[in-house]
Amino acid sequence: MRFENRVVLVTGGASGIGLKASELFISEGATVVAVDLNQEKLDAAAASLGKAYCATRCDITSVDNIQQLLVDVEKTHGRLDTLVNNAAWAEFKNPEEVEEASYDAQMAVLIKAPLFLVKHAARLLRAAPNGSVVNIASAAAVMAIDKYCPYGVGKAAILKFTEDSVITVPGIRHNVILPGLIDTPILADVYGEEVSVRLKQEVPKVMPSGRVGKPEDIANAIVFLASDQATYVNGCPMYVDGGMHLVNAFNLMQG
Ligand SMILES: NC(=O)c1ccc[n+]([C@@H]2O[C@H](COP(=O)([O-])OP(=O)(O)OC[C@H]3O[C@@H](n4cnc5c(N)ncnc54)[C@H](O)[C@@H]3O)[C@@H](O)[C@H]2O)c1
Q: Which of 33, 56, 137, 185 is most open to solvent, judged by the fewest CB atoms within 10 Å of its CB?
């Protein structure tokens, strides 16, 4: 098992990609500190994944919460091997429609929280034998997509932050995954049920890989980047999007 005795912190670890990554890390021997806002989903995951899944309700948009979280991780587990910055919230708008509160809320979870998590986790990650950060951006970070404004900008910021961190936070590997359209609860939350069903039907028709992604497509990449098979992978933007960023499937579909 690749993660025996290792401790992994996954934000947004109660749903979608974060939940699937937590499951996979646990199956590889890790203890996962799964951080999320959604208590109901945390409880459900804890019931099925057992004691290696440490369900932790925490709003990571507060720096005080982040500091306390890392104090608790050190006190309880004594180490941290991998930080997965995965939590997100989105409200898709164009610049002329976006409200200040929505912008602030999105940036707080998409870039402020990952930055301060890295700040407060760096000492523990550096002490680990293969300490690393895996950030979750989006193919939207590099594509111009209608109505994706604050979200796409936040995802471009985490891509840039990952690359900077290789130089500015040394002694830890930093990598970033750019998922395409992945079938998780965020789709219905952001687009509404009807549009999310239509997207899942239409996007595969213009996707090089011909299908929508599954949470395990991203979870497998996260676990690989955190593993000892990836000790020379540093500062890597990894597209796991079925080739979507090369065809911009969202805009093709709208045309
Ligand atoms: N699903 C896709 O198509 C897709 C595409 C590209 C990128 N992504 C990215 O993948 C990551 C995972 O998304 P997902 O699709 O699994 O979505 P999801 O909604 O299933 O999971 C996101 C989780 O983050 C949690 N969260 C939100 N704000 C939080 C906060 N302040 N503190 C703690 N937890 C918080 C939510 O409660 C939720 O459980 C996100 O970064 C998302 O932007 C998803």
A: 185
Residue with CA closest to ligand 1 atom 33: 36
Architecture of domain 7-183+215-245: 3-Layer(aba) Sandwich (3.40)
pLDDT in tens, 46-103: 999 999 999 999 999 999 999 999 999 999 999 999 999 999 999 999 999 999 999 9
Ligand 1 pocket, mutate which of 9, 11, 17 (most atoms under 8 A from CB):
17
pLDDT, mean of residues 205-219: 95
Domain layout of the chain by residue ranges: 7-183+215-245
- The binding-site residues of ligand 1, defined as CB within 6 angstroms of any ligand atom, are 11-12, 14-18, 35-38, 41, 59-61, 86-89, 109, 136, 138, 179, 181-182, 184-187, 189
Alpha-helical runs (H) found in 86-192: 100-107, 113-127, 149-168, 185-191
Q: How far lies 35's CA from each of 13, 18, 84, 95, 130, in Å?
A: 6, 9, 10, 31, 22
CA 12 to centroid of ligand 1, rounded, Å: 6
pLDDT of residue 251: 65
